[in-house]
Each structure stands twice: as C-alpha cells, then as structure tokens.
Write a structure and sequence with these properties.
- With 126 residues, the protein is mainly α.
- Helix content is 69%, strand content 0%.
- The chain has 4 helices and no strands.
C-alpha cells in the first residue's frame, strides 16, 4: 500500500533497506559472539561455536540472496494473478477467500485478554 506505486525491484529494495539493516546487524553480532566462543579452551564448546558461526553466516547469505529471489518471484506471481498452488494457471476472476480476510490474531487476542482479566483466572494464578 505505501510503496504500491514503486516497481517491484524498487519495492524489494525498500524492503531490504528496512529489514536488511536489522538482519545484518543481528547476524554480525551473533557471528562475532560465537567467534569469541571459538577461542574457548573446551573442545566441545569450541566446535559448537565454530559450526554455529559458520552456519549463521551461511543462513545470512541465503536470506539476502535465495529468499529475496523467491520472494521477488512470488510477488511477481501475485501481481500477475496466478495460482499459488499451480503458478502456471492464470486466475481470471480472483476473489480472496473469506477465511483469508478474517483477523484471527485480533480474535485470539480479545479472547485471551478477556481470560486474563476474568475473576476465576485471577484466583487460580494468584
């Protein structure tokens, strides 16, 4: 909605501009922390930290390349009104299911807050 006027590559750029910074910083700090653990004197901890640091770096590279590429292709599929199950099928009259339009998170949140504020729950908890 906010970036609907932008082209798809520009939309991906804006997405990565916002999410990419936090993903990059988190990955750098995690790899650095496990890198420090890799100089430990305990062989088991050392091996774990080395493997985890390498794994986190690999996952980061996959997130900024492979995942973004698939997300781009999926957005292209959505814009061309194609089926999510069989992408080669072009949908003529697409209408979202009524089930996909329901805000289940809000329903669960309202019921949960009602439960938390109920007298029996307050008695049981405390």
């Amino acid at each position: 909605p906010l970036n609907a006027a932008l082209s798809l590559p520009d939309q991906m750029g804006v997405t990565l501009k916002h999410a990419g910074v936090s993903i990059t910083i988190t990955t750098i700090t995690d790899v650095f922390a496990f890198g420090i653990g890799a100089v430990s004197k305990m062989p088991g901890l050392q091996a774990f930290c080395v493997c985890t640091a390498i794994s986190l770096g690999s996952i980061y590279l996959l997130q900024i390349t492979w995942f973004v590429a698939w997300m781009f292709l999926d957005e292209k599929r959505i814009q061309s009104v194609r089926s999510g199950l069989v992408p080669c099928l072009h949908l003529k009259e697409y209408k979202p299911s009524s089930w996909s339009q329901v805000g289940y998170g809000q329903i669960v949140f309202k019921k949960y807050t009602k439960l938390l504020s109920s007298a029996p729950f307050k008695i049981v908890v405390g």
